[in-house]
Amino acid sequence: MKHIIYNIAIAAALTLTAAGCDKDGDTIYAAGAPEAQLDGKTTDIVLDKDNLDALALTIYWADNGEITLSDPRVAAANDAVTNVIQFAADAEFGTTVDETMASGTCERQYTCKELNSLLSRLGYEGNVKAPVYIRVKSSLGDNVAPTYSNTLTVNVTPYKIDMTIGFYLNASQEDTGSILYSPESNGIYTGFIGAGGWENWWLREGDSTIWGNDGVTGTAFVMGNSNTGDEVWNFWYPGLAGCYYTVVNTQINEWSALLIPALTLGGDLSGEMTFERKSNQWVYTFNAASAGTINITISGTGKQYNAATGTDDAAAIDTPVSFAGDANSLTWGNSGSIAVNIPAAGETTLVLDLNDPRAYTVYASAGAPEPQPTIYPRLYLSGVYGDWTFDWYVNLYDEDNLNYGAALPVNSEWGYRIYTEVDNWGDYYSMVDGGNAYEGQLVYAGEGNVAAPDPGFYLFDISLGSLSYKLTSITKVSYSGLNDDWSLTEMTPTEQPGVYTAHVVKSANTPWGVKIILNDNWDLYFGGNGTPGQLALYQNGFEGDNDLENGEYILTVDLAHCTYSYSK
């Protein structure tokens, strides 16, 4: 690609204005300044999508932030002028993309990615050379007409950006394979996401802009992006897991989530479909009388969350939902009959596939759907602390990966086994040969037990998804986040294994909840699971104090049974 640097020398350009007075009748004026002059080369720029971080354009100007006044006895303000770089697709600057420069800033560099994104916002076509018009607007106060530099014209060839696709990223900004769709390339993206409760995520546009929450407490559905320089947090869904029709509107900087708890079939079929979150599909199994075509309707009532409701379940708005149209390209939000081909008589599965927002589909296939793994809310560690009972357990904290966790006391001579149900001694997991007391692999119904570590208090992290386990010795338990104070305060262990207490003073709001931090390690923590009084491993902070009056309380956490409480 070609790199060029434009030298733009801009003199201060200020109109006369009243600035102050010594006494009635005296007026002090800001001195005028000559019009700004831009100079630069005219070499064409060709932007390269394979070198996104390469420097494409540099502009700079003389500092015009100082003004002079007609009365020398009055001090002039430093950095009084506001400079705005303006880009436009036409010489009249009918529509501009503006960037305000910080006081004292005299230079701006643009990478290929940044300049291409800017051109995309102005509607430039990819791989087509076209002129871009650049000028600087200088202003002194809201009531003073701005002055403009002369215009610099440069021919630029942007690379093509697909602004129809918004990429759904996880909390670590990694691509998940899910997308939202903007058919008009207008910055309004829609689609269905099978989301977990309080799931964190980001959206990346085709021009590499990453969108999240605006970083302001109490504005869960208000957006900010990576280009502003302001603090931006990840998006988060409400606390209920399920199917969400998601709309991200970059035009108004807001997004919304419409939870669909159920879909009902009508017409030639009658019943309730089941949502499979991992596959992002709704399914319904029935016995078809014969091959051929059936006509069905699909409808329900959703719960709308948006900037007005926040994530408050009680405030969510009841909203009718439905599908219609062709089975290979369904329309969302319309009601009507849908013709579906039935391949054969017998057991049949109807599938509503919501993975591709460019074309939602519904189809029927012979046979029953593949069985989904059983999701147990708890796993029981019999033998881990004394007798072989079902008193000690770990709770599910990651449904997608079947991960379980809790902090448990250990005092075991023969080790332990991991059971899926109380008093069901036949379904269990034990240690694969080669494992040890602190980490290893699991096998279903294997011989022997999981080896036990030395007596003590341990964090258990067990996964049936990866058939693995890991233990971490716990030496310290602290709380953080109360009153929006994120320092660590150590808690006191009690005689009851896993139970810790702390004397706390409620004095302010706790917008992000409280977290329980282990071993002063922010990677080891408990938060809430969405149910008041219950803890879960690796979740957002738990609530419970915001409804309390200011005052002194005892915070009690039971990390073995995953509970918390406040008491006087």
Kindly describe this structure.
The protein has 568 residues and is an all-beta fold. The protein folds into 4 domains: 18-157, Immunoglobulin-like (Sandwich); 162-371, no CATH class; 378-473, Immunoglobulin-like (Sandwich), CATH 2.60.40; 477-567, Immunoglobulin-like (Sandwich). It is built from 1 helix and 46 strands. The strands form 9 sheets. Strands 13, 18, 19, 20, 21, 24, 25, 26 and 27 form a 9-stranded antiparallel beta sheet that branches. An 8-stranded antiparallel β-barrel has the order 30-31-32-36-37-35-34-33. Strands 3, 5, 6, 8, 9 and 10 form a 6-stranded mixed beta sheet that branches. The longest helix has 10 residues, at 112-121. It is globular.
Beta-strand proportion: 35-45%
Terminal CA distance reads 69 Å
Total count of domains: 4
Taking the sheet with the most strands, its summary is:
9 strands, antiparallel
Overall pLDDT, averaged?
A: 87
Low-confidence stretches: 1-35, 65-76
Described by the principal axes of the CA atoms, the overall outline is globular
